[in-house]
Amino acid sequence: MSRIDIHARHELSREDAQNAADELARDLATKFDIDYGWDGDTLVFERPGVDGEITVDDESIHVQARLGLLLALLKGRIEEEIHDYLRSHFNCRFTP
């Protein structure tokens, strides 16, 4: 199983950061047919072959996903989509 683990620093309010995570999940849901919903400050998403969460706090967004065998082939594309989206829409800075 392949994993995605992305941390992004932001300067948004918590509400705006949650909206950013929600918009990202909606975008990924459209492109990759993912179901998602909020559990407190964590947006949980899944579909056959992938599951994960996007956690939002006052300073950062943390995206974690576990990709099954077939989606592991798209790992680079999925990571690029997440990075590009967070950079272009929310001017996020990434930490290791």
Cα distance, first to last residue? 21 Å
- Name the poorly predicted regions: none
Assembly state (oligomeric): single chain
Share of residues in helices: 40-55%
Instruction: Indicate the CATH topology.
Output: TATA-Binding Protein
CATH class: Alpha Beta
Beta-strand content bin: 35-45%
CATH architecture type: 2-Layer Sandwich
CATH superfamily: Alpha-D-phosphohexomutase, C-terminal domain
Radius of gyration (Å): 12 Å
- Structural category: alpha+beta
| H-E string | EHEEEEHHE
Biggest pleated sheet: 6 strands, antiparallel
- Order of strands in the sheet with most strands: 2-3-4-5-1-6
Any idea how many domains?
A: 1
- How many strands? 6
Compute the average pLDDT.
Answer: 86
By DSSP (H or I, 4+ residues per run), the number of helices equals 3
Overall morphology: globular
Summary, kept brief:
The protein has helices spanning 14-32, 69-72, 75-90; strands at 2-9, 35-39, 42-47, 50-56, 60-67, 93-95.
Which terms summarize this structure?
6 strands, about 100 residues, TATA-Binding Protein, 3 helices, globular, alpha+beta
